[in-house]
Amino acid sequence: MAGVRLQDVAEHAGVSMKTVSNVVHSHPNVSAAMRERVQRAIDELGYRPNAIGRRLATGRTGLIALAFADVRLPYFSELANVISKAAAATGPGYRLLLEETEGTIEGERAVLSASEAGLVDGMLLQPSRMSSREIAERHGDLPMVLLGEGPAPLSVDRVMVDNVAAATAATEHLAALGRERVAFVGHERSGMSSTSRQRIMGYQEGLERHGLPVDHDLLISTGAITSQDAAIAVGAALDRGVRFDGLVCRDDLAAIGALRALHERDISIPDDVAVIGWDNIAFAATTFPSLSSVAPNTQALARVALDMLAERIAGFDGIGRHRVVDFDLVLRESAPALASTDAPGGELASVHAGSAHAISA
Amino acid sequence: MAGVRLQDVAEHAGVSMKTVSNVVHSHPNVSAAMRERVQRAIDELGYRPNAIGRRLATGRTGLIALAFADVRLPYFSELANVISKAAAATGPGYRLLLEETEGTIEGERAVLSASEAGLVDGMLLQPSRMSSREIAERHGDLPMVLLGEGPAPLSVDRVMVDNVAAATAATEHLAALGRERVAFVGHERSGMSSTSRQRIMGYQEGLERHGLPVDHDLLISTGAITSQDAAIAVGAALDRGVRFDGLVCRDDLAAIGALRALHERDISIPDDVAVIGWDNIAFAATTFPSLSSVAPNTQALARVALDMLAERIAGFDGIGRHRVVDFDLVLRESAPALASTDAPGGELASVHAGSAHAISA
DNA sequence: GTGAAAGCGCTAACAC
DNA sequence: GTGTTAGCGCTTTCAC
């Protein structure tokens, strides 16, 4: 039955509301007989505490908002899953309110400027377009932790993977495989995100460390962050004579598009072109050939983000903390492990603020 | 500033709470001068209405729960995206609380038996394991609409696609392409879901209509609903000598796994084996070859489900309504359109309770 | 160990 | 047009 109130239970059991409340919360100071009597009343009436009433009284809703561009992007749905599980296990057990920004500045503003306050206890936001200044100004006093390598004001907590280091590690792996012309695929043709920018920086760093050519022709941008656009862009590059034997992809979407473009032209992977993606999405294991990929430690990311958010909710008010979580380089058929690091878990490189492990899968 | 209350604004502006409330809600009956004065107070204090207070007073939270197995499954993340957009456009603008059941009966029970009531105004649930009787018993009086072809008590609203008809259409398309041994891939090895059951029924119906062999060897089950398991299962079937020239897959995950198993064995798609998946996930367009797929009309599904839910929330209390939305058969390289129905939108078949359109993509 | 009563912030009669 | 006031359902001091 709905509409059964705490007070109804109290009357039915012939006790005060406080006593019922004590029973509901398993408070120690209540006699066994009383507990029994009240519990019977609860069961008979089918009483269920009303969440909103409780929340008005306590000031906590138990809800946190998770905001990112689009849940259809595999990385984000993976993130939503991991965070939702971790959130349920955090403190009182948080639940997730899903907010999509569509990767637009309007969407990001809307998420931060919700006209109502107090619905959620805090927010996890992966921004991509908003400037760090605007984030700092708009978030008001909503407890917040930023996800990812996007803009982040010093005043706000943030968790990310070292994208530069990871891109360097991926590029160096291709170099170690003997690749001499390594291209980068999948950054936005216009309005490049900080994600793409950092990955390209790391890619260049990797090339330079091995004395490989850094060439604008080897930067293959796409119209949108989709595998279709990547397939088109890589196909066009090949058709206009751009040659490469290794491909660092902005993400697995781009990598899957690249796979398709290469297949269409009967280019063998990894013999002719080795490919590394990013995010290690579930499909990476079943593409043909299977895809090597940079795998951010999303478990750690969720854990760290939620811990920091819980501290903020609890009242912590210090300067923003910026944390870095580690990543793996998961090596599959499209860019296999070197013979010498063939064993799963073989250490490939140790990079600043997190280690890159090469894992053969 | 947080902690600014309606009352603070009223005092600051020297008016009553009611007047402030009128301004906040853009009520007509308030003079321009008054509106101006109050608005200034709101801006000066940075007042934002508190959602929980409002919700306690109105009894509505503006939240609906969306519960399904796992947001990482592409079909569900697509659904979450479509429903979240449609929900924002429904009535007062609903937001989504994400709940994952992990496809287990415990998970489904947990979602329905949340110990607190009143947090959400209603629920959209895609059940897979729970019996219809248990659903009917447990949902209490929470406004609810069921999604998908799982168990559904007559007392509860439900929206689905006609899975039998769609599977028949897919199978018949393969028959029309001249395929003579059409297998089904991807149902659970044990504990088969009603989804798989219905799709297999439609598959059998399609075979029988064309006098094609119905053979237990042609039912290739998998351990889990993943593309990896499908790749293993299809590979094993091929290796033990099962032969087929067409494949109806339970979903695109299974289809992508099948693609991989076929590629590994140098079997040509669609020449040797034509493949049709289900759900028309984004990747279907960029696999190699691209994947033909049954495309449920998720837009319509979201629209119908939310409309029914809104009616339930508004108090509608009639018997459960079971609605069927249509689907398309999107034809790509893995099982191309017939020459005669080559034109996009060419009508393939008209099936009960929804039309199947063949669309070449 | 149990009860009474004062809020939490907002809405909506109802009165002015 | 604007103000007063009684809740919405729960928690939580503070008496008893």
UniProtKB/TrEMBL annotation, chains A, B:
SUPFAM superfamilies: lambda repressor-like DNA-binding domains, Periplasmic binding protein-like I. InterPro entries: HTH_LacI (IPR000843), LacI/GalR-like_sensor (IPR046335), Lambda_DNA-bd_dom_sf (IPR010982), Peripla_BP_I (IPR028082). The keyword DNA-binding applies. GO terms for molecular function: DNA-binding transcription factor activity; transcription cis-regulatory region binding. It comes from the Bacteria. Keywords: DNA-binding, Transcription, Transcription regulation. Residues 4-58 form the HTH lacI-type domain. CDD domains: HTH_LacI, PBP1_LacI_sugar_binding-like. This is LacI family transcriptional regulator. It comes from Mycetocola zhadangensis.
